[in-house]
Amino acid sequence: MLAMARAIIISRPKLLLLDEPSMGLSPIMVEKIFEGVRAISAEGMTVLLVEQNARLAL
């Protein structure tokens, strides 16, 4: 979560690339990460997501 915040706040990117953001996290943390990804996307930032959990990614 810290890495995502750092990437978004410091560099203000137009595109956020995420490779397996849920890897190694507890189910509760995975849900929080994806809530954040949905919020970032809703604000208009483009998100390119590589994730094995297709249902969650969609």
Descriptive labels:
58 residues; alpha+beta; Rossmann fold; 52% helix
Could you explain the architecture of this structure?
The protein has helices at 2-11, 27-42, 54-57, and strands at 15-19, 46-50. It is an alpha+beta fold and 58 residues long. It has one domain: 3-Layer(aba) Sandwich (Rossmann fold). The protein has a two-stranded parallel ribbon with strand order 1-2. The chain is globular, with a radius of gyration of 11 Å. The mean pLDDT is 87.
What characteristic shape results from the CA principal axes?
Answer: globular
Q: Numbering strands along the chain, what is their spatial order in the largest sheet?
A: 1-2
Structural class: alpha+beta
Q: What's the SSE pattern? A: HEHEH
Give me the oligomer status.
single chain
Estimated share of beta-strand residues: 15-25%
User: Level of helix content?
Assistant: 40-55%
Rounded to an integer in angstroms, the radius of gyration calculated over CA atoms is 11 Å
Mean pLDDT, all residues? 87
Give the CATH H-level superfamily.
Answer: P-loop containing nucleotide triphosphate hydrolases
Number of helices: 3
Q: Report on the biggest sheet.
A: 2 strands, parallel
- The name CATH uses for the topology is Rossmann fold
